[in-house]
Amino acid sequence: xxxxxxxxxxxxxxxxxxxxxxxxxRPWTLMEVCGGQTHAIVKYxxxxxxxxxxxxxxxxxxxxxxxxxxxxxxxxxxxxxxxxLFCTFGDMLRVPGSRQDLRSLKAQGADIRMVYSPxxxxxxxxxxxxxxxxxxxxxxxxxxxxxxxxxxxxxxEGLTNFSLLVSHVLVPPALEALLSAPNCQxxxxxxxxxxxxxxxxxxxxxLAEKYRVPIVVTGFEPVDLLKGVWVCLEQLENGxxxxxxxxxxxxxxxxxxQAQAMLKQVFEVVPRKWRGLGELPDSGLSLNRNYRHFDAxxxxxxxxxxxxxxxxxxxxxxxxGLKKPLECPAFGTRCTPERPLGATMVSTExxxxxxxxxxxxxx
Length: 363
What we know:
By secondary structure, the protein is an alpha/beta fold. The protein is built from 17 helices and eleven strands. The protein has helices at 2-7, 10-23, 35-44, 63-66, 69-79, 102-107, 118-127, 144-157, 171-180, 193-199, 204-211, 222-237, 257-266, 296-299, 315-319, 343-346, 351-358, and strands at 28-32, 54-58, 84-88, 111-114, 132-139, 162-169, 188-192, 215-218, 243-245, 267-274, 278-287. The strands form two sheets. A six-stranded mixed sheet has the order 4-3-5-6-11-10, sandwiched between helices. The protein has a five-stranded parallel sheet with strand order 2-1-7-8-9. Helix 8 links the parallel strand 5 and strand 6. Helix 2 runs parallel beside helix 12 (222-237), helix 3 packs parallel to helix 17 and helix 8 crosses helix 13 (257-266). The relative contact order is 0.16.
């Protein structure tokens, strides 16, 4: 706790806010691309400490939120089948599909288990050879290595009753999609430190150069985040556009080479649909041909499923940074954590959930 206190120190926060105020001479628009960072920004009011005209937009940084309805409905169809033991992290249980969520399915009798690691699901497959055990593999580059390791281990052990429902997405293609959009307002990015801990910084350099935007890697505590904002604004004020590492106590330029090797062994890069952004080229991971027999989508024959997003939910615009949660007419009324219209309200990393918890305006 003493270690964290240094990065939550109010004096350090105030000093950085003052330094930012001295640095800025004109309006700027930045975007953080991590749901954990969004929650920290809203919880501690960091955006409210910035000078007038400096705005923080919330991007598609919540992996639960960007999971498309098709993938959620695939999960529900698989989990509802007899003989299936469906495993997921807890943050997916209450995310609504087109009809219901996994928690409701569990209440109806489906065998759905909350686990803390894909290796927990692997153990269940090992101990229940008569059951089909499926793990819902959702997330950015941070969770993908552990899921790759689970499949690698299942192959080594010859476990034929284990599979992954894969919905992994990659951050750099999402940044490119946002930057190439005609209505893009973003002039600089705060990149997620945990993603870069795995993948390093290499993928961000071409984006910074092509679109002439600074990309600053930062952490999740108030001092970390304001330091990242300051570094990003300094670059903008000086006409620079490079990748900077403001989280070097954790992130190394090359990333985690062992984790990257495991990803390359098990996965391949594929197009992937994102909620709010549509299908983006080279933006996801799928099991490669050597491990495709562990693909639950193929095993259960659910490849062609197509689902329309609910018209009332503005999560797509919120994930793209075009709107903030308080601009949604349904926020806090027709859409609440108890009865969510979309994942951004119910996910622990969703922007709507953050605003509901920390910024909700009550009558």
